[in-house]
Automatic annotation (TrEMBL):
This is Aminotransferase class I/II-fold pyridoxal phosphate-dependent enzyme. Its cofactor is pyridoxal 5'-phosphate. Residues 12-304 form the Aminotransferase class I/classII large domain. PANTHER family: HISTIDINOL-PHOSPHATE AMINOTRANSFERASE, HISTIDINOL-PHOSPHATE AMINOTRANSFERASE 2. CDD domains: AAT_like. It comes from Rhodococcus spelaei. PROSITE patterns: AA_TRANSFER_CLASS_2. Signal peptide: none annotated. GO terms for molecular function: pyridoxal phosphate binding; transaminase activity.
Amino acid sequence: MSVLALDTPRFELALSENPFRPLRSVRRALERAAAEANRYPEFLPRRLPALIAARLGLDPAQVVVGAGATGVALQVLQAVARPGQRIVFASPTFDGYPILASMVGVEQAAVPLGPDGQQDLGAMASAVDDRTALAVVCRPHNPTGTVVEADALLDFLAAVPDRVVVVLDEAYVEFLAPELTVDALELVRRFPNLLVLRTFSKAYGLAALRIGFGFGSPGLIERVHRLQLPFGMGGLAEPAVRASFEAQSELAERVRAINTERDRMRGGLSALGIETPRSHANFLYLPASDRPVAALLAGAGVAAKTYPSGAVRIAVGDPIAGRAVLHALAPTRR
């Protein structure tokens, strides 16, 4: 997988970033906290997991934090998998999972997505064998933005052996409509081998601060805690998270704006004859076709995420960037 763009793209849409600055109240909190940047953060984070646990209604022993969701995912892999074991995930998926698996020496069982861009949970369950240590389900999925049905997820969790850790990657959960969310707290109570992964990088727009967290059963989280990096969470993380939790009305307004622009973009692409899966995240996935979509975007100064199949993923939310995408692809109208 690669990023195809000009050396200096006008629009950076390759990383599914939030196009907006951090929420105004969060920026103020960060400015105040930056005055203490001469001080070390906690040796091992205690206050931040407690803050997140209190927000979610969990015990602090059920929460682990890391350098973005990617950092937590690495801790999980290191904690539960050994070289020669296997990880099961859909393909394509978030680039981090194949990279982290290679770092840890874990073999990859990549299960192709269905033609509708959905993860095939039945095939993924069948791919779990005696050497499987970990399985990953993204909801919404990256890069298609599709959402597996709640019943299908339950069936998958019930089918996977207890010894296999399942990561439910909810990096984009804030973009989901309420009726599409699942009760993640109930799931971790029911399935002690489940770890739910979330981040402040996407909807909250704090990608540069690298704040991710996971939650699950105390026994599973204790295993992951053993790999917590000393001084691994920056001192801005706690005030940023506290302010983010207090800014839910600002967040809701921003999510509505991004979702509205996403749906407008999807309609605009459809008018050009480019059909995309129904996305529930802050990006759109343009499946491979005979059209030179990636080249047209690159030529217009739009940095897009490209895949070996020829598919392309673009971040959404900025109306100006959206118009640039539609203008670049207009020559492909049929």
